[in-house]
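Hi support team,

I submitted a single chain yesterday and got back a structure, but I'm not sure I'm reading the token output correctly. Could someone confirm the output below corresponds to the sequence I sent? I've pasted both exactly as they appear in my results page.

Thanks,
R.
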Amino acid sequence: MRPEQDMFDLIIGVAKKDSRIRAVYMNGSRTNPQVPKDLFQDYDIVYVVEETASFLTEEGWIGVFGNLLMMQEPDRNDALLGRQVDVFRSYAYLMLFDDGNRIDLRIQTIEAMKEEYGQDSLTVPLLDKDGLFPSIPKTNDSDYHIKKPSKAEFEGSCNEFWWCMQNVAKGLWREELPYAKGMFDQIVRKPLDEMVSWWIAMKHDFKMSPGKMGKYFSTYLPEAHWEMYERTYAGADVEENWRAVFTASELFRTLGKEVAEELSYHYPDIDDQNMTKYLERVRGLPRDAKGMFRG
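Hi R., thanks for writing in. Yes, this is the structure output for that exact sequence:
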């Protein structure tokens, strides 16, 4: 695997030699001092160019970066699907090389750069041939800090979590695994992860981020809470999924009440109690049941 300095020398060297490229900057995890370095970090690079057309015409120009294992061109894919894209403003190449390095490269016109540069707080200039870049604050991850939820956001998240649990329950009772797991992992997990993120950020005065998609939850959650969170992931067994449902409910309740108390919000105890009883009764409902229950 080519070392980091070799990759930067290559990325900047290509830009220096190509007169069409007038500046280079970087975003992403490599600009964030709070993120631990590892071999899977991408190089999120932007080449500021005079125009994109010549790059798009010369399809093989990216070969200079190494031997590709695979590439994705999201703008091309969107255009093929009929979505509106302006490839003459910017164009992206997501490249994975045979040595394991990955470069997410975007070519961007000077005009587009003037509108976007510095909007991401994790922006670092690497090369500026013409003094194009305006002055920006020193890189920091403030744009990615978890924001304190408003009262409406908190209450909406609680409502979504408990309301959608009934969909998971009926899917499990019917043994409709794709539906039940889709509802849990794609719908219910969103407010669960919101609550976990708010709880963690609350402990740090809302001046941190637990990472994209909660990838640092294990770092910031107490061991007991993290073990509960782990148990919210289940395989294909119906009973295992039921256990995940009740573990998620317990974790959401525990963290939600603490967040509500800290922010002087109202945690919906009645919804929690009613839905917990509902989940318990659906779990115990015979598969040949012909009607629902009362009381």
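A quick pointer for reading it: The domain at 145-283 is CATH 1.20.120.330 (Four Helix Bundle (Hemerythrin (Met), subunit A)). Let us know if anything else looks off.

Best,
Support desk
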